[in-house]
Design brief:
about 260 residues, 2 domains, 2-enoyl-CoA Hydratase, Chain A, domain 1, six-stranded mixed beta sheet, four-stranded mixed beta sheet, 10 strands
Length: about 260
């Protein structure tokens, strides 16, 4: 983890890690330093057993307007590197978020465009304020989609709708995003923080290992046959039945109380 974060604010509270992209003057556009700090933060959260849920959001009136194409240090903060190498560095950030075996929530207020929208979609859950806007803006910049959008969008909303969003690069409202199926919930602007906080705390109170196994199975499911998926479920449940958390959940059910999960 960098000794001093320049582009992010990271807050921890009872297992919930809130990562705020903090370049509000640039609508939180991600420069090379931000990509580096995001990757380091995702890796740190993945490795810390006390971090249970990640909430990703933006400072000011935006989530993230995408990559900062005006950054003099180039796309990934590696001036002079071939663009293929720079884009592979960004791909590492997308994979770091995707592989994080803990629940993640994108809290979207304002614009989420380009890689910023792709980053939101890379989270497990997306909650948007009524004033939020989304765009796969790439084609307006003479670019093709990136940060995992070519993989995420068809799986989330189907191939034809994915092509509509990416070909036209329209800016759509939060309600339209909900109709497309790219967000889980749209809430009034003044309720966004409270709603996401409730979801994050519910997830943090859940069984960490079971949630992690469920997330991994769901992420991998489209590449498996039914037989393979059932085998993965069997292996995961065998792991769960050997944990103290499952024993605690069964005891809590019998005793008519809420379980207290410890992640072991």
């Amino acid at each position: 983890m960098p000794n001093q974060l320049e582009t992010l604010i990271v807050d921890r509270d009872e297992g919930v890690v809130t990562v705020t992209m903090n370049r509000p003057a640039r609508k939180n556009a991600a420069n090379g330093r931000m990509w580096y700090e995001l990757l380091e933060t995702f890796e740190e959260v993945a490795a810390d057993r006390h971090d249970l849920v990640l909430v990703l959001t933006g400072a000011g009136d935006a989530f993230c307007s995408g990559a900062d194409l005006g950054d003099p240090s180039d796309v990934a903060g590696r001036p002079g590197d071939p663009y293929l190498m720079q884009m592979r560095a960004l791909a590492d950030v997308a994979l770091g978020l995707h592989r994080l075996a803990k629940p993640t929530i994108a809290k979207v207020g304002g614009i989420a465009a380009g890689a910023g929208m792709s980053m939101a979609l890379g989270c497990d859950l997306v909650v948007a304020s009524e004033s939020a806007r989304f765009s796969q803006i790439f084609s307006r910049r003479g670019l093709s989609v990136d940060f995992g959008a070519s993989w995420l969008l068809p799986r989330l909303i189907g191939l034809h709708r994915a092509k509509e969003l990416t070909f036209f690069a329209d800016i759509i409202s939060a309600q339209e995003a909900a109709e497309f199926g790219v967000v889980n919930r749209v809430v009034p602007d003044d309720q966004l923080d409270g709603f996401v906080d409730e979801w994050a705390r519910r997830l943090a109170a859940g069984p960490p290992l079971a949630l992690s196994l469920t997330k991994t199975m769901l992420n991998n499911s489209l590449g498996l046959s039914m037989d393979q998926a059932l085998e993965e479920e069997s292996r995961s449940q065998a792991v769960n039945f050997g944990t103290a958390d499952t024993k605690e959940a069964i005891a809590a059910f019998a005793e008519k109380r809420e379980p207290q999960f410890k992640g072991r």
